Amino acid sequence: MNNTSKEELILEAAMDEFIARGWSGARMQSIADRAGINKTLLHYYYRSKENLYEQIVRRTMEYFFGSIFRKISGIENFEEFLRTFINTLIDLSSDNPRLPMFIMQELSRGGEAVLAILNDVLSRNNPPVTVVMLRNITRAMDQGKIRKISPIQLIMTLLGSSLYFAMAEPIVMKIGGMNGFMEGFDRKSFLEERKKEIFELIYRGLENRVADHG
Amino acid sequence: MNNTSKEELILEAAMDEFIARGWSGARMQSIADRAGINKTLLHYYYRSKENLYEQIVRRTMEYFFGSIFRKISGIENFEEFLRTFINTLIDLSSDNPRLPMFIMQELSRGGEAVLAILNDVLSRNNPPVTVVMLRNITRAMDQGKIRKISPIQLIMTLLGSSLYFAMAEPIVMKIGGMNGFMEGFDRKSFLEERKKEIFELIYRGLENRVADHG
DNA sequence: GTCTATACATCGATAGAC
DNA sequence: GTCTATCGATGTATAGAC
Fold first, then answer.
1. CATH class for the region spanning A1-47
2. In chain B, what residues touch A202 (CB-CB under 8 Å)?
3. Tens digits of residue pLDDT in B21-52
4. Does domain B57-206 fall into CATH 3.40.50.11540?
5. Integer CA distances (angstroms), A199 to A4, A73, A175, B205, in order
6. Alpha-carbon gap: B45 to the closest alpha carbon of chain A (Å)
7. Which residues pair with B146 in a beta bridge?
């Protein structure tokens, strides 16, 4: 018996299509083609595009926030937390380059329904992944391991630094190709280098000491 | 005589619409409504949605890359370069929150036409803004002002850190609201704080000295 | 140049046979 | 459950009067 049910086949195809083209760009016919089924079956199983879309948003957010939560929860040491968080974000976004942009894009577009899904997904983990991160940073500050900073600003910097390459990869490669400073580019080793550089830069930047300048 | 010609009115309306909703989400009727004109005139002046879109992409890229170029070109001092680059990106993206995402989104979607526009826009400044940035970073390394790093990785980190908040603002505000750690949030002062925090973190992280850890 | 009316294509959704 | 055929809404684009 085939365990990859038709429902599951559809969901995977729909995820690919919605993430690649967004809500307004996605086509039911294209989802059916990806799944290798008749278009009518999409409506048979999932009633409407809107409904199918909501399930994809839920699934996507569960995957994204769930992955981060599983990786960082339980870590007590700040250096390990920092390194793990960066590595997880880069792995996640390089495996699914359009995922971060999809979440942000459709969350600013989506109305109450999408917000409710986000709320539900985040509250499923206890404590929520957002709280876990804040605690780790605050604790490190209290213990004097890092200097006093705004935890939220640090989280933004970590997210931005780690997710940006995957989001901007097409344009980066194009600009890089034009200027010739991407010769012999190897994606895999670039991403490994990226993990190290981000960690090193931020870890040094957080050290609890007086800086050279004013 | 009204200097805001009808062509210009249409372009501004189209820019708002395309940036807000993307290629597939944008509606010609909605552009006409924003411009306060009849829908037919869009085709009279710009022939097709595709053609209008290309002009918007060009205009957007000229604005974005041109702004950065004008701000950073001519700066010799590395610290000033770093500060100016960060400030410019944050000002640009907070004034036009959807602009960075639009450029990235539509550049990964767009085909040859969009790439040609990018090529054209970048090569208009001499030297291109990308080269200016690389030079500044490389010079600072050669002079021993900062430690040895990968210039491209640094540029990615700067872009990601500075642009991320504007891109993710809707989701950040929602998550922040849910967890109650965004009480009394003031956008303007947050952004000013953000400029300082990013600069401080990265400047310290680049200092040419031995770090605490391995 | 600007309008109304309408052609034409696409897409989501459903009816109905099997 | 799965298919073909088709409806109805929406969106781009144009014809033609003024």
1. mainly alpha
2. 201, 205
3. 999 999 999 999 999 999 999 999 999 999 99
4. no
5. 40, 19, 25, 10
6. 26
7. B207
